[in-house]
Design a protein that fits this description.
The protein is an alpha+beta fold. Helix content is 19%, strand content 46%.
Length: 135
């Protein structure tokens, strides 16, 4: 599960304003490479929306099924706000929806195909509104 924790106003290259929703996943324990001690963090990502500011504000706190995953991307420079240090990253975090509905669709397709192939003509629907055995 992820939660909508905030929103931001952005502007397209053409000058049109839109809003993105800030999503945050559950907490994670991460071990520091420098101190070798654990700290708690949460993955965050933004997702574009078609909502106005009032709707985005009302959505804060809403939970969505899915997760925020680390995704490999083209290298880009990132400046750490606290230190001012610029580093090169090759990943970003993205919202990924749970795949429960696509599994159901595939299962339904298989069932329909099996059903249609089990009938002699492949057509079990009446054209005149009356069920007629086609033996």
């Amino acid at each position: 599960m992820v939660r909508i924790v905030n929103y931001q106003k952005r502007t397209t290259d053409e000058g049109k304003d839109f809003f993105v929703l800030e999503l945050q996943g559950g907490i994670e324990m991460v071990k520091s490479q420098q101190t070798n001690k654990f700290y708690v963090t949460a993955r965050k990502a933004t997702i574009s929306s078609t909502f106005d500011e009032q709707t985005c504000k009302a959505l804060i706190g809403t939970e969505l099924s899915g997760a925020i995953q680390k995704v490999v991307c083209e290298p880009y420079d990132y400046t750490i706000k606290d230190t001012g240090e610029t580093i090169t990253l090759t990943h970003r975090y993205e919202y990924v929806e749970e795949n429960t509905s696509s599994t159901k669709v595939e299962k339904s397709k298989a069932t329909i195909e099996e059903f249609m192939s089990s009938t002699p003509t492949g057509n079990t629907f009446s054209t005149n509104g009356h069920l007629v055995d086609q033996d």
